[in-house]
Amino acid sequence: TEINQVSIQVFELIKEELQLLAKGLFNDAVREEYKKERDYLVDYVWKNIESRMRETQRHLSSEGWAQLENIRDECNDLRWELKKND
Fold first, then answer.
1. What per-residue confidence (pLDDT) applies to 45?
2. How far apart are CA 48 and CA 10, in angstroms?
3. Mean pLDDT value across the chain
4. Which of the residues 6, 60, 74, 84 could staple to 64 if both were Cys, CB 3.0 to 4.6 A apart?
5. What one-character DSSP code corresponds to residue 61?
């Protein structure tokens, strides 16, 4: 359905945000003063994911929900990768 597609597109964009944050993390030139801001952004993006999961659950088909769960899991992996590489 259209709701499935929109939700999945939104989650893909959120995942891209985390991937961009991860790319910045692995760059040795990133200075310490940006670390707290980056951590805040990672947590903010993650909270956005959790909030959207709750909002969209009742509107999605089981296939759409499964796709969102996969994207969420990928995002969670990225999130922990960001946190453990400090």
1. 76
2. 10
3. 73
4. 60
5. -
d(Cα 29, Cα 16) in Å, to the nearest integer?
21
- Of the candidates 58, 62, 45, 44, which has an alpha carbon nearest to the alpha carbon of residue 10? 45
Read off the DSSP letter of residue 29.
T
Residue among 13, 36, 32, 17 nearest 79 (CA):
17
This prediction's pTM:
0.59
Exposure letters 9-18 (e unless 16+ CB within 10 A, then b)? ebbeebbebb
Q: Helix, strand, coil shares of the chain as percentages rounded to 5?
A: 85, 0, 15
What's at 66, amino acid-wise?
Answer: A
* Two structure tokens written together for 56: 């969209």
- What number of CA atoms fall less than 13 Å from residue 71's CA on the CB side? 25
DSSP-assigned letter for residue 19: H
